[in-house]
User: Fold Crp/Fnr family transcriptional regulator from Thiohalobacter thiocyanaticus.
Amino acid sequence: MPTDESRLLELFNELNEADRHALIRYAEFLAGRPVAGLPQPQAAAPAEPVLPETPKPIPRPESESVIKAVKRLSESYYMLDKNKLLNETSPLVTEHVMYGKAAEEVIDRLETVFEEHYQAYLERWS
Assistant:
């Protein structure tokens, strides 16, 4: 008798009746045989088509900081890769913080950047 079989038999003999039954059921499961008393697997239903996610629009407040706008847009466009957006949003935030570019202008541009990234996201789905 091969080593694996003899070891399995040793372990089987050490088990109580309930555990022996459980082991047999598990072995049948692994072997792909129908297990008495368990529902048999049904053919898988056709998968529903996965659709792209849509943004959760959060209205732009009348008075908003650039940082809060980035957070709002990140939450609205939750499905986008934040690392890719960082490459484009960081310079815009810097323009505002370091060079005094008007918050409204920067936020307008941020909204455009997020929308462009969302359009690219949609194109990957088609």
The longest helix spans residues 103-125.
